[in-house]
Structure to design on (433 residues):
């Protein structure tokens, strides 16, 4: 199993890094050492919300905010002051989004260093991930292992989501590209069948449709359509699937047609409580547009990315140059800095490196800030900083430990002059065949 410990050689990255990247390399080494000790099961920011009391209080709050506030307040207070108390009410779980991003991060390290142990770690995580796919759909898919009460109603645990499944799709494609093992390509193709067949399209114009968040809703969440469009454009090219191309174009048109005049996107268009603009969901939209445009090569998409990034840089950073969580808030906020925002800004900068140099420079600067100020002595990262300077330090792998690990290793890989020859699929014969 992938939980078995493999030593990460001290200084392995240092021998291969330019001076400006040494700090990030040391942070990655420290995180891997912590991860090998902590394991892959984790608590989650939303797990208390899945308990009987959490579901009741959130449902009441969404229906009657004033009446419900006293009931959600104890959960919020515990999260701020004593988050570790959740162990009395919930257990650690494995999260597909976290595992997929760990796979991508270990694959990055394998490419960066050539150390076979990193590839083996990624392969073990992939076996675990596939074994936890949700059955009953057209292909493998993943969601959350807890019930989730939200504005629209209740999503039961193990409802597959388009916001979780694409990371798994990318992880299996990455493993195929590294190893040449066609079973990974077949798995990615099966995931694309779920994304194409089991998610719903809601027409929004003659040539556009919003993708659903899950197989059971008809929401118009913008980043959901961005994830689906990215997967389907990639699948259309990898697997020669015209139906994927048609669906992807309609989802893409929904995104382009609903970009606001200032360059921003609302989180969702069909629910008043979700007409906000925030940091990491804006990153999701931009990075997925950038990824799919590698296949499409559209000037219109490139223009939307540039306009969206200009808004993002202007409205979602504070005077101190650090990420702001919201440009348009859904409600009063008590979080001053969210490390998830840092992670996604770094990821976005890596994706946009060749197109928007400012994004790359921003990613490098924020990576240094994270490594200097928000990594704890044992190697994991701060979760968030509340107003007043209170730091939340309980590690949640799904939010934002795996995202930061993936972001920092992606940045390290992008600083490489070249990937090692033995990490290329062409020189790796099919493994395990």
């Amino acid at each position: 199993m992938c939980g078995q410990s493999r030593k990460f050689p001290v200084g392995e990255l240092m021998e291969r890094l330019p001076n400006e990247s040494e700090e990030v390399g040391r942070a990655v080494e420290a995180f891997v050492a912590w991860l090998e000790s902590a394991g892959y099961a984790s608590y989650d920011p939303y797990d208390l919300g899945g308990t009987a009391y959490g579901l009741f209080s959130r449902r009441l709050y969404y229906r009657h905010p004033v009446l419900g506030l006293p009931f959600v307040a104890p959960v919020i207070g515990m999260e701020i002051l004593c988050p570790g108390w959740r162990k009395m009410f919930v257990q650690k779980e494995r999260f597909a989004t976290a595992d997929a991003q760990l796979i991508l991060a270990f694959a990055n390290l394998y490419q960066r260093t050539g150390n076979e142990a990193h590839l083996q770690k990624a392969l073990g995580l992939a076996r675990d991930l596939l074994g936890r796919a949700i059955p009953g759909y057209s292909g493998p898919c993943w969601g959350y292992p807890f019930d989730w009460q939200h504005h629209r109603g209740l999503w039961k645990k193990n409802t597959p989501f388009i916001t979780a499944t694409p990371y798994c799709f990318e992880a299996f494609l990455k493993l195929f590209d590294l190893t040449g093992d066609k079973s990974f390509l077949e798995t990615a193709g099966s995931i694309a069948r779920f994304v194409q067949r089991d998610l719903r399209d809601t027409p929004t114009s003659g040539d556009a449709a919003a993708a659903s968040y899950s197989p059971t809703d008809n929401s118009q969440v913008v980043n959901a359509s961005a994830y689906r469009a990215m997967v389907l454009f990639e699948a259309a090219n990898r697997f020669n699937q015209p139906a994927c191309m048609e669906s992807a174009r309609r989802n893409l048109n929904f995104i382009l047609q609903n970009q606001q005049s200032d360059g921003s996107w609302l989180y969702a268009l069909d629910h008043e409580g979700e007409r906000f603009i925030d940091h990491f969901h804006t990153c999701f939209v931009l990075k997925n547009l950038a990824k799919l445009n590698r296949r499409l090569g559209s000037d219109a998409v490139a223009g939307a990315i540039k306009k969206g990034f200009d808004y993002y840089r202007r409205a979602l950073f504070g005077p101190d140059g650090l990420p702001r969580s919201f440009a348009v808030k859904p409600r009063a906020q008590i979080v001053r800095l969210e490390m998830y925002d840092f992670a996604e800004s770094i990821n976005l900068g890596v994706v946009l490196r060749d197109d928007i140099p400012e994004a790359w420079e921003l990613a490098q600067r924020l990576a240094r800030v994270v490594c200097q100020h928000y990594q704890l002595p044992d190697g994991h990262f701060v979760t968030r900083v509340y107003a007043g300077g209170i730091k939340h330090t309980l590690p949640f792998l799904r939010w934002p430990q795996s995202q930061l690990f993936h972001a920092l290793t992606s940045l390290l890989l992008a600083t490489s002059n070249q990937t090692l020859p033995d990490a290329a699929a062409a020189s790796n014969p099919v493994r395990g065949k």
Observations:
- The longest strand covers residues 201-205.
